[in-house]
Design a protein that fits this description.
It contains six helices and five strands. It has about 170 residues and is an alpha/beta fold. The chain has one domain (about 5-174): 3-Layer(aba) Sandwich (Rossmann fold), CATH 3.40.50.620. It binds coenzyme A. The site of coenzyme A has 23 residues, from strand 1, helix 1, helix 4 and helix 5.
Length: about 170
């Protein structure tokens, strides 16, 4: 039987934004353990490798405070997965998938994913958290686009992420 206290928050996180971090922070206070799972969306070509995305998430999660206000993201684990999310959730003992909803436009896709995951394992529940209103317009693609064109995205991403995007772009341009 899965532990109802373990939640899993999956995503591409290419890269993590303040919108993701807001969900991570709030979800981590609702459960005993939060597994942040970096997965692959076959339709997306990513800027960062899985290892780079994990590193950025770990750095960011380490600054998240728990429900007692202690920093360190003590109950947050960042891992990668391949294959089906429902299978991975079962392997981790997670029975709850957390997803952030930004706008109605997210709903149809997320609704389909939740039903497919339910079909794959009926014990898995998906819960949706409303993204903080100040981050409803955020997406990983948008921050990359802004950064690639020289905009200041320091208010949109956790510390260190802007520098990593700039470094990546510079090294790719040679
Ligand atoms: N704040 C800011 N942005 C947010 C956000 C939030 N709270 N929540 C979502 N987003 C954005 C992301 O940045 C991302 O933006 P992008 O499209 O510009 O990159 C977008 O919303 C959607 O991202 P995400 O939630 O990461 O979903 P995804 O579509 O990339 O899915 C997996 C990634 C890994 C969760 C998904 O592909 C998966 O489950 N794969 C496993 C295979 C599987 O089991 N499929 C289901 C059955 S077929």
């Amino acid at each position: 039987m899965s532990d109802p206290q373990t939640y899993i928050y999956p995503g591409s996180f290419d890269p993590v934004t303040n919108g993701h971090l807001d969900i991570i922070s709030r979800a981590s206070r609702m459960c005993k353990q939060l597994i942040v799972a970096v997965g692959r969306n076959r339709e997306k070509k990513t800027l960062f490798t899985v290892e780079e995305r994990i590193a950025m998430l770990r750095e960011s999660a380490a600054r998240v405070a728990d429900s007692a206000g202690r920093p360190g993201g003590g109950n947050i684990e960042v891992v990668s997965f391949t294959g089906l999310l429902a299978d991975f959730a079962r392997q981790c003992g997670a029975s709850v998938i957390v997803k952030g909803l930004r706008a109605m436009s997210d709903f149809e896709y997320e609704f389909q994913m939740a039903l497919l995951n339910k079909y794959l394992d009926e014990r898995i529940e998906t819960i949706f958290m409303m993204t903080n209103v100040q981050f409803t317009y955020l997406s990983s693609s948008a921050v990359k686009e802004l950064a690639l064109n020289g905009a200041d995205i320091s208010g949109l991403v956790p510390d260190g992420v802007q520098e990593r995007i700039r470094f990546k772009v510079t090294s790719q341009r040679g």
